[in-house]
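ERR on first pass: missing label on line 2. Operator R.T. fixed the label and resubmitted. Corrected input:
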Amino acid sequence: MQISKRCSVAIHCLICIHEFGDLNKVTSKQLALSTGCNPVIIRSIMSALKKSDIIAIKPGTGGTTLCKNPQKINLLQICSSVEPDFLEKLVGEHTCASKLCPVGRNIHLILKKPYQKIRDDMANSMSNITLAEILKDYQTVISSQQD
Amino acid sequence: MQISKRCSVAIHCLICIHEFGDLNKVTSKQLALSTGCNPVIIRSIMSALKKSDIIAIKPGTGGTTLCKNPQKINLLQICSSVEPDFLEKLVGEHTCASKLCPVGRNIHLILKKPYQKIRDDMANSMSNITLAEILKDYQTVISSQQD
DNA sequence: AAAGATGTAAAATTTAAAATTACATTAAGG
DNA sequence: CCTTAATGTAATTTTAAATTTTACATCTTT
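pass 2 clean. output:
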């Protein structure tokens, strides 16, 4: 039923990893400070991104790096990594409709097609936004602030 | 952050009103039974649809009718009626990012463009689904069950 | 083996949605 | 003109979901 904060936090972390990862070791503690959320949340998000082969985490000693070209990373991948069933939850349905009413009996079936269309369009929209674009926008913003 | 059950319930009610409204008076009590949710919720949803000129409610004595051609009613209208800020809430953002980090300081601004694109695409997708299509699907399902 | 990191389960807290309660208002019918 | 059956809406309670916290296991370099 929603795209939670996890997706925004994931993007935030990916920017940090791309920008700072080359020079410094990026840890979950640092990302927790930067994002303002709990290190455990960060680790669960990082763990999900790792499972999707978006980042690599150096075990034991820590540190995180991107393991794909940012042009190959899009918002659909990020969001479905950190929130696997977000497309299912995107549209909420009432589940206690009356079986005695012909509409109530069939409403779930009737909503299936339009709601799937919305999910497909959403997936398509998100897959067209890449991390590369977001990084470019970040760099534009940063350089304008250094004047 | 989500498209709540209210939208699904609204569609359910609109189907009932279209199918049964000509012969019978459709009241919030009946819609509550059919949808399985509380009459007060139904009235708040009906009230929202009325404000958007999607339905007309006969005051005092009750009864509800569509006041537009179903081809002119789409999911965007329905959803934004019953949940005015659903597009804003569609994507969640973390709000406690650190001002000390250049990413944290700017993350809200950076996410603005991609998230607005997602909202616009979503709005477009939903505006292409009309109540007329849904009514047609309903009638197909119903007639197949009468064999 | 010690230090500093990740991995993850489980409980507690917070937040948002939905349901309920209560009561005011409206209009037709007797 | 008063009763009835309906809508309108504010305020509270309940429920459900997301987030945070706590706790502890594991892993790797030094």
